TrEMBL record:
Name of the molecule in the record: Beta-xylanase
CDD domains reported for this sequence: CBM6_cellulase-like (cd04080)
Recorded family membership: Belongs to the glycosyl hydrolase 10 (cellulase F) family.
Signal peptide: 1-18
Gene Ontology BP term (one): xylan catabolic process
InterPro entries: CBM6, Cellulose-bd_IV, Galactose-bd-like_sf, GH, GH10, GH10_dom
A single MF term (Gene Ontology): endo-1,4-beta-xylanase activity
Catalytic activity annotation: Endohydrolysis of (1->4)-beta-D-xylosidic linkages in xylans
Length: 618
């Protein structure tokens, strides 16, 4: 017996000295508490910890007299919130702690339940939320990672958790209290206004701002489920919306409970889409595979983990439990009856052989968001005329941009220098030119009265296929509006036309966006006139064809030779040519063998500074 005990002691010492799987790697590989405890092998396997339930609001916050009285906070309850925090603190920089979660529509205190506490009000709820945030900040002032809001995607008829009524839950497993009767959490945090059928998630933005005030250096996370399957697009839209509204969110947490059987390609493509469309780094926050078949579970791990580890915009990985029979969902454990399942064996081997493949280019330097502003200080009034070049001044922080321009060349105008929008001197003054597909501009507008308006735009295109679409606060208000090609002349962007469409506008201040859906046209200005099919207040007067022909003949007869500089898209001068007019200069450039690479080049008259873009195809 003595020998056996000595052996066990040696084994435990050896385990304690072991390096976690991702120790020294580019990002963390973490796990959760097990049945409310921190197992002795936690530090041998994982270098990040999330208490499964211990830091949830309902686990910590109570009132002295049940539904009334003073607030009390139990920090090291059955699931060890404070102990997990201290576990990470034992090895600063090597271990990491994530607080889960400040705001969630499930497992909040009973005294917030409308049914259990009929006297609860919006104002009381707001006070309790503030007390909760303040208490967490006082206890843990230096939190590194925080799930600020959990499971709030609107999925058709309900939120992802029981803010107002019980929800289905991830994998159909709900932790909502069916006897609670809902809460006033959303209302207390500013509500959830709906604009043109789209949820604005005001309460989420408020929660993130409250968190940033208390933890200026923490990584603030929005966390949700079904984001890789059923509600992928809804999740993307939520992030885009709260970022646009000024929420200081740093990371989008993917619970990733919905990855069972997902192919490697599908998994990678979906995460990439989410990252690209939200513009945020991702965190794999609750990954698990509920599979009884060891080999199938291992296959999923082998298809998913390498991408998480080796992708630079994924900030970290948390697996949601590792002991079979002690996880929230069946068959998600990695160790069964003391033996590693095949996925765990694979996991150990992968990190032993590929630790140095980890990539992490995510940096967290919190920036106080600042919304975009009208260029001239006040919103453009509708009905009225808006000059295209007077798009909004960009704000600060992700989601507060006022334009997106693929080329980022300023053009030949000195108007609004410092922006990347292509502005040129022509037409009625300044125009937005070289509009590539996917480019967009935004203007803050103030609609004086809700109703139908006729939209007019002055546009010019050299070829057919150019088009754009209007949206208001992220909702399309027009079809794709085609821009007619010039009536004559190659690469002719001087022939301006008016296009129009009836649009419905709500009253008040909004963000108007014009998105290029078909490339290569110039935009001068646009006008909104009250009423459907209204008359254009500024119709473009066209010259008679005969007069144009006469002018052209006179110009050709003069044989005036002029010099033209040729630039690439970076503004580097490629050379100089002489030609009898801009059209001949364009032809010479297209036919020349000097420009070896295909792409877009600019031709500018040295005499008049008139500039044209020309596309070279080899």
């Amino acid at each position: 017996m003595k020998k056996f005990l000595l052996f066990v002691s040696f084994a435990m010492y050896s385990m304690a000295a072991a390096e976690p799987l991702a120790g020294g790697g580019a990002k963390f590989l973490g796990n959760i508490t097990t049945s409310g405890q921190i197992r002795s092998d936690m530090g041998d396997l994982w270098n990040q910890i999330t208490p499964e339930n211990g830091c949830k609001w309902g686990s910590i916050h109570s009132l002295s007299n049940g539904n009334s009285g003073t607030s009390r906070f139990a920090w090291d309850n059955y699931d060890k919130c404070e102990s997990a925090y201290n576990w990470a603190k034992e090895k600063p920089g090597e271990r990491h702690f994530k607080f889960h979660a400040l705001v969630w529509g499930s497992q909040y205190p009973n005294f917030l339940c409308k049914k259990k506490n009929p006297g609860i009000t919006v104002e009381q709820t707001k006070r309790y939320i503030t007390e909760w945030f303040d208490a967490v900040a006082a206890k843990f002032p230096d939190l590194e990672y925080i799930d600020v809001v959990n499971e709030a995607i609107w999925a058709g008829d309900n939120y992802h958790s029981g803010y107002g009524k019980p929800a289905q839950g991830a994998n159909g497993i709900s932790t909502d209290d069916t006897e609670c009767g809902g809460s006033y959490i959303i209302e207390a945090l500013g509500g959830d206004s709906i604009v043109n059928g789209k949820h604005q998630y005001n309460f989420i933005t408020t929660a993130f701002k409250m968190a940033r005030e208390r933890w200026p250096k923490a990584v603030l996370i929005y966390n949700d489920y079904n984001t890789l399957t059923w509600q992928m697009n809804e999740g993307i839209e939520l992030i885009q919306t709260i970022v646009k509204n000024g929420a200081p969110v740093d990371v989008y947490g993917q619970q990733a409970h919905d990855c069972k059987g997902m192919s490697k390609t599908d998994f990678e493509n979906k995460l990439t889409k989410i990252h690209q469309e939200t513009g945020l780094p991702l965190l794999i926050s609750e990954y698990d595979i509920g599979e009884a078949d060891d080999e199938k579970q291992k296959t999923d791990y082998a298809n998913h983990i390498p991408f998480m580890w080796e992708t630079p915009w994924i900030a970290g990985i948390t697996i949601w439990g590792y002991i079979d029979g002690a996880t929230w969902a069946a068959n998600t454990g990695l160790i069964k009856n003391g033996q590693d399942r095949a996925a765990m064996t694979w996991l150990k081997q992968y990190f032993a052989e590929n630790l140095d493949k980890g990539r992490n280019e995510v940096s967290f330097d919190p920036v106080e968001p600042e919304s975009q502003k009208p260029f001239k200080g006040i919103a453009s009034v509708i009905p009225g005329k808006i000059e295209a070049e007077d798009f909004d001044i960009p704000g600060v922080g992700s989601g507060n941009e006022s334009y997106s321009d693929d080329a980022e060349n300023h053009g030949d105008s000195d108007y609004r220098e410092g922006t990347g929008v292509d502005l040129y001197k022509k037409a009625t003054g300044i125009v937005v030119g070289y509009n590539a597909k996917g480019d967009w501009l935004e203007w803050t507008v103030n609609v004086q009265k809700a109703g139908t308006y006729t939209f007019f735009a002055a546009v010019a295109a050299a070829n057919s296929g150019s088009s754009f679409q209007l949206s208001l606060d992220g909702v399309n208000i027009s079809s794709e509006i085609a821009v007619p090609a010039a009536s004559s002349g190659e690469e002719n962007y001087e022939d301006y036309n008016k296009v129009s469409e009836n649009v419905e506008l709500p009253a008040g201040e909004h963000i108007l966006r014009l998105t290029v859906t078909g490339a290569w046209f110039d935009l001068d200005y646009f006008t909104f006139v009250a009423g459907a099919n209204a008359d254009d207040p500024e119709p473009i007067q066209k010259e008679e064809p005969s007069a144009i022909a006469s002018d052209n003949l006179h110009f050709d007869a003069a044989h005036v030779l002029a010099d033209y500089d040729v630039f690439d898209m970076q503004g580097v001068r490629m050379g100089r040519i002489s030609a009898y007019g801009l059209h001949e200069a364009i032809r010479l450039v297209k036919e020349s063998d000097y420009l070896k690479n295909q792409g877009v080049y600019y031709i500018r008259s040295r005499k008049t500074n008139q500039m044209r873009a020309v596309r070279i195809v080899r």
